[in-house]
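Supplementary notes (optional reading)

For those who missed the lab, this is the record we used. Protein: CLD12 protein. Length: 245 residues.
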Amino acid sequence: MGCRDVHAATVLAFLSGTASVAGLLAAVLLPNWRQMRLYTFNKNERNLTVYTGLWIKCARFDGSRDCVIYDPQWYTAVDQLDLRVLQFALPLSMFTAVSALLLCLIGMCNTAFVSTVPNIKLAKCFVNSAGCHLVAGLLFLLACAICLTPSVYVIFYNNYLNRRYEPIFSFDISVFIAIASAGGLFFTSVLLFLWYCACKNLPSPFWQPLYSHAPSMHSYASQPYSARSRLSALEIDIPVVTHAS
């Protein structure tokens, strides 16, 4: 597999990374990180479920979609450690993943539209495709770690709340979306690393992060065969006879 073309692996990695970022955005905005189920023994009243998100809190009666209590200022008064950590971790993970997507896109565009080495005056201003994908893979892996660790911690913290108070707490769908998005980020980084390792063995500077020499020293096109190599075997084996004086 060569590095000089846009491959399905890099395109799939870009699409996977985009889907993972979209999943992180949904997990950040949805108010479904934790449910607190409140039961009543009065037959004239209905049970109440409090949905807790990173930014808002909503309380609903069973069978109703309208919020009886809606708190849009919840993000300023979060009193649960895991949600407070997620308020900082998930946006940071999204920013890291978006930066990786931009690098991946630059690498693909550089591969698709720059077939030769740029001018010597601009050579140091360009990053080659493999360098972009390598750094993007590292950023995707970092974003996965930043997202996955606090998302899994929510599960353990939920068990802690149930032991300390009453078994009325449960984690909601946003936890699964965040963990699935972290898995997508990890899959994206693995794809980019595999592509990078397959291209690194080529005798070219594609694996280097920056150009460091003049363009004349780096030729991305295959070197032309010499005139003698294009001769047929018959022509090569013909002896040269010289006449002695």
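If you only remember one thing from this example: Residues 6-32+79-113+127-198 form one domain.
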